[in-house]
Amino acid sequence: MVPNFWANLPKPFFVLAPMEAVTDVVFRHVVAEAAAPDVWFTEFTNATGWAAAGDRAIGGRLVKTDDEQPIVAQLWGSVPEAMEKLAAHCVELSYDGIDINMGCPDKSATKSGGGSAMICNPENAAAIIAAAKTSGLPVSVKTRLGYSRIDEWRGWLTHILQQDIVNLTIHLRTKKEMSKVPAHYELIADIKRLRDEIAPQTLLTINGDIRDRTHGEELVTQTGVDGMMIGRGIFHNPYAFERTASSHSRDELLGLLRLQLDLYDKYSSQTGRPYDTLKRFYKIYVRDFEGAAELRDKLMHTKTTQEVRKILANL
């Protein structure tokens, strides 16, 4: 049995949300350089695909380094046997915990019964959690309020809390809502009361529209939850986890970009990511300074990291 690191986290704690093709080993190290969260999550990793085809099926999603601690492998899938096998593999990879994705709304996950489709199959959701627990790692869950309707939250979250997990992260929207409406902060107090009644030992983490640590701390003060998970906020501010908010210069932002280029080159053979996947990150660093739009346009037409470095060198 691996020690439960969740029990020793500061309160409140802050987590970098798992984001597909975003929170890989490269970007996590960039965030660490800017301002690190208390807990790292990997990208979504398909247990069924891995069980069938091994590492080539997951594209470097579980690549990590020893300095990323604590780090949680976020897994998804609808086949308990596959979840059990990949969970055991995560022990071999020295992960600190497993989080089961029961909230992803993308069809690539839901069409096979994974992600937010788990909400429609609570019995299998319980079986998936039990399968992950056989690894001995602490098991947590990330999910949504419901599948189609907001009022599904009470029955669904009750069921998940009854599974004795270490942490429950709730994205405060339904699968149907995607990210098209504001997160339902008005439900946090009721959700916390439900947690306190059913599983007071389970930590409660909130996700959805949280801008930065300062914003998260304000919500904790108002609601008394244990943790905050920041996702898209990191695209607006790579320093979102810093303890004292401050402004950052163009040179600091471009320094993070240069670091990401270097790390991409370092890990590309392990992650297998094509160069164009880097382009989604350029808007994080090239913004809010004179000439940013023109510079961004130039970078979007590049084909290699070396081309980007030449453009930055000529600024």
UniProtKB/TrEMBL annotation:
Database matches in Pfam families: Dus
E.C. number: 1.3.1.-
Alphabetized UniProt keyword annotations: Flavoprotein, FMN, NADP, Nucleotide-binding, Oxidoreductase, RNA-binding, tRNA processing, tRNA-binding
Cofactor: FMN
GO molecular function, one term: flavin adenine dinucleotide binding
Record-annotated active site: 104
Binding-site list for FMN: 74, 142, 171, 231-232
Domain DUS-like FMN-binding: 16-309
Superkingdom of the organism of origin: Bacteria
Reaction(s) catalysed by this chain's protein: a 5,6-dihydrouridine in tRNA + NAD(+) = a uridine in tRNA + NADH + H(+); a 5,6-dihydrouridine in tRNA + NADP(+) = a uridine in tRNA + NADPH + H(+)
Homology family: Belongs to the dus family.
Protein purpose: Catalyzes the synthesis of 5,6-dihydrouridine (D), a modified base found in the D-loop of most tRNAs, via the reduction of the C5-C6 double bond in target uridines.
PANTHER family xrefs: DUS-LIKE FMN-BINDING DOMAIN-CONTAINING PROTEIN (PTHR11082:SF25), TRNA-DIHYDROURIDINE SYNTHASE (PTHR11082)
Protein name: tRNA-dihydrouridine synthase
